Amino acid sequence: MLVLATAYYFIPVGLNSRDERAYNAAVASVPGATALVDVTMHENWYWWLLGTARCVTISGEAIK
Predict the structure, then answer these.
(1) How far is CA 39 from the centre of its chain?
(2) Which of 4, 17, 25, 35 has the fewest CB atoms nearer than 10 Å to its CB?
(3) What is the pLDDT of residues 27-55, one digit of tens each?
(4) Least trusted range by pLDDT, from 6-15, 17-26, 42-51, 54-63
(5) Is the dihedral of CA 9, 53, 18, 58 positive or negative?
(6) For residue 18, what pLDDT is reported?
(7) Distance of alpha carbon 28 from alpha carbon 1, whole angstroms
(8) pLDDT band at residue 14 under the 50/70/90 scheme
(9) pLDDT of res. 53
(10) 26 to each of 16, 34, 64, how far by Cα in Å?
């Protein structure tokens, strides 16, 4: 999210697809994997001068 304005943020950047992108990156990191089981998700928020950054980490057991 880019700019801080009063009580809420606007101009989201890649916010809605972050879970899907993290899942796809986790599957792609294992050659031949098609999906993950026993999935866990961890999200970190970082505060910057003009907004926040949200990082999602997906982990699990890759299956073929």
Answers:
(1) 13
(2) 17
(3) 999 999 999 999 999 999 887 777 777 88
(4) 6-15
(5) negative
(6) 85
(7) 26
(8) low
(9) 78
(10) 18, 10, 13
| C-alpha 41, offset from chain centre | 9
What is d(CA 60, CA 18) in angstroms, rounded to the nearest whole number? 17
Residue indicated by tokens 């999906």: 35
Angstrom distance (rounded) from CA 56 to CA 15:
10
CB count in 10 Å sphere of residue 58 = 20
Two tokens at 61? 């057991």
Q: Is the dihedral of CA 33, 34, 40, 46 positive or negative?
A: positive
